[in-house]
Amino acid sequence: MRINALNPDEKQVFGKLQKEGPMTKKSLISCFDYKTSTLNRLISSLLEKKAVVEYGQEESSGGRKPSLFDVNVNEKYLIGIEISRTYSYVTLCDLKMKVKAGERIFVSVDKYYPEILVDEIAGIVNRFLEKFSITKESILGAGLGMVGPIDRNTGYSGEVSDFVVDAWSNIPIRDMLERALGCAVYVDNGTYAAVLAEYLYGDGRKNKNISYFNCGIGIRSAHITSGVIIRSAFCEEDAFAHTSIAVLGGRCKCGKTGCLGLYASTRVITENIRRRIKAGESSLIKVPLNEINYLHYRAAAEQGDVISREELRNAGFYMGIGLGNYITLLNPERVVISGPLVMETPFFYDAVVKTALENIYQREKAKVIFKRGGSFGIETIAVGAAAMFFECYMGNPIME
Fold first, then answer.
1. How far is Cα 72 from Cα 213, in angstroms, rounded to an integer?
2. Which of 63-77, 115-129, 201-215 has the lowest mean pLDDT?
3. Which residue has the higher pLDDT, 345 or 383?
4. Residue 140: enclosing H or E segment and its boundaries?
5. Angle (nearest 5°) at CA 227 between 221 and 228
6. Given this model, what pLDDT does residue 223 score?
7. Exposure string (b/e) for 240-279, b if CB count within 10 Å is 16 or more?
8. Which pLDDT score, from 0 to 100, does residue 255 have?
9. Strand 219-225 vs strand 228-229: parallel, antiparallel, or unpaired?
10. Most C-beta atoms within 10 A of its C-beta, which of 91, 163, 240, 345?
11. Across residues 168-193, what is the average pLDDT?
12. Is 325 within 8 Å of 359 (Cβ atoms)?
């Protein structure tokens, strides 16, 4: 399949089938107002290039059943990659963003230096290709969604903070991945990738305005409104974490006081739980204080640990206050909340949604739908990264 050889009209038809296929010629004509002869010519060319395949026939009440056409998902594939502070994830997707395989890389000091992690990612991709008997020539390209800031034009990471190793600032990560994978790579902030996945391929496909939040060591966010990704001026995705919700609160490392990130993150919850246990409060968590992490208090909360449940709900309350302000300002139709704090325990998420709903201005008019984890769960950012490569490759204006 030669997608790069498609002319603009062929790309239009191909893109429509990729998002909404299988479709009949009649349906395609109604979408683009093509003449029948023009569409027949375009379909014939796409079939010849193996970009499109005939996909059976549509049910008919009488007469000849019309043929259905769809993109050929068995010729080209995409690699989607997430690099975050908690784990990394690698996916193999078809051209409809259906995940054929996925593998998580857990954070550890020995695996998280840039060169080592890139080699690990390349190894996973090679295993995927071998498993499905896919050649490297069949990989259309790869996308990376990473903790920002990251410059999508130069492919360099910015001043990335709070990684397990202090080695990620000013790294040419795109070039490194292209050399290791042997294909073109698109890079962007992870939450931008996630919100794109939800907007184009997830439950948010019928929404004009959609927001995505990732809650873990930090609070990362992204928003799409009417087909435009709202990007920060400095390629950052944690600006929402530095909105103040307590003017007289603690001082953030950014220099301001009362930032949301001081009240709703795994780091803050961990510190508060350690402090309370050290002060003598009873807890089901029995590991040494310096070893406590979100997996420990997630498990303890499920078993009824009072401290863990209280701290998760307190963090959810503050996140809900900030989210209520966000929804009041931007009025998203759908809000996807994900990340370790959300996916690992319901106590944080439930408190976020409850508090946000109580603090939305004119909430009787706000028709917001909340979604825990999104349409793709743990794979959302990686799938979104693959989608970013594809949409950029196809020249979709949303990627401008």
1. 33
2. 63-77
3. 383
4. strand 139-146
5. 55
6. 96
7. bbbbebeeebeebeeeeebbbbbbbbbbbbbebbbebbee
8. 87
9. antiparallel
10. 91
11. 96
12. yes
Task: Find residue 91's DSSP bridge partners.
Answer: 80, 102
Question: Alpha carbon of 315 to those of 216, 260, 268, 277: distances in Å?
Answer: 11, 9, 8, 18
Torsions phi, psi of 273, nearest 5? -65, -45
Place of tokens 């009041």: 328
111-139 burial, b at 16+ Cβ within 10 Å, e below that, comes to ebbbeebbebbbebbeebbeeeebeeeeb
Name the nearest CA neighbour of 106 among 92, 127, 120: 120
End-to-end Cα distance, the chain: 25
Beta strands in 324-386 (DSSP E): 334-338, 369-372
Mean pLDDT of 348-371: 88
The length of the chain is 400
The amino acid at residue 146 is: M
pLDDT > 60? residue 1 = no
- What DSSP element (H or E) covers 144? strand 139-146
Q: Is the pLDDT of residue 228 over 80?
A: yes
Higher pLDDT, 56 or 158: 158
